[in-house]
Amino acid sequence: MSKLKGIREQQNLTQEELSEKSGISVRTIQRIEAGTDPKGYTLRVLSETLGIQEKEILNKQFEIENKEDSDKKTMPKEEQIPLNYSSIKLINLSSLPFIILPPLNILLPLILMFTMKMKNPITKQIVSVQMMWTIIAPIVFMLGVLMKLGNKFTLLIMILLVLSNVYIVLRNAAEIDKKNKLYYKLNFNMI
């Protein structure tokens, strides 16, 4: 499998969709995926469209995890393909405007994930973390209210819950910038 085909499939794009986004003909994309090295303008436009470096398209063979080497610790196939981390960061930060309304802080990242065709482990974790926070926050709030410690305590709980989610989102955004991974993540995906 060619590197371009692997990257295109990772970003859930068909040849036609990549052609439409990049302005490169479907036939040219087919030739590149068949083994022809792109040059000049074509190489530059494809790398910009896919959010990767030009040299990554030139590697003809896509690295596939070998079943014989399964005892070695290798990254899953999905993580071997370069991802567009600026889009991932945008999906992460998209939950900030709706932090006060917990169900909506899941909705916008989820919509962006599907419209940008960025269904990868990192974006799934971003949405999963927001889902878990949305489940836990009302429980903590209700426990605080049931303790009947007064209105000031209830307000303090609300502020702390909102600030905790802001911190999680911003800390993950910083980690995406620095190390291209999430700081806060779950051991499982909720989607």
Portion of residues within helices: 55-70%
> Which sequence of SSEs, written as H and E, runs from N to C?
HHHHHHHHHH
Whole-angstrom Rg: 21 Å
Oligomer state equals: single chain
Estimate the strand proportion. under 5%
- Please tell me the overall pLDDT: 81
**How many domains, in number, for the residues?**
2
Please give the number of β-strands: 0
Structural class: mainly alpha
Query: Low-confidence stretches at least 5 residues in length (pLDDT < 50)?
Result: 60-80
The description of the largest β-sheet is: none
Q: Distance between the terminal alpha carbons, to the nearest Å?
A: 28 Å
Shape call: elongated
The count of helical stretches stands at 10
3D structure, described in words:
The chain is an all-alpha fold and 191 residues long. It is 63% helix and 0% strand. It has 10 helices and no strands. The protein has helices at residues 3-10, 15-22, 26-34, 40-50, 54-58, 77-80, 85-93, 104-115, 121-146, 151-179. Helix 8 runs antiparallel to helix 9 (121-146). The longest helix has 29 residues, at 151-179.
Question: Secondary structure elements and their pairing?
Answer:
Blueprint (H helix, E strand, L loop, with lengths): L2 H8 L4 H8 L3 H9 L5 H11 L3 H5 L18 H4 L4 H9 L10 H12 L5 H26 L4 H29 L12
Helix pairs in contact: 7-8, 7-10, 8-9, 9-10
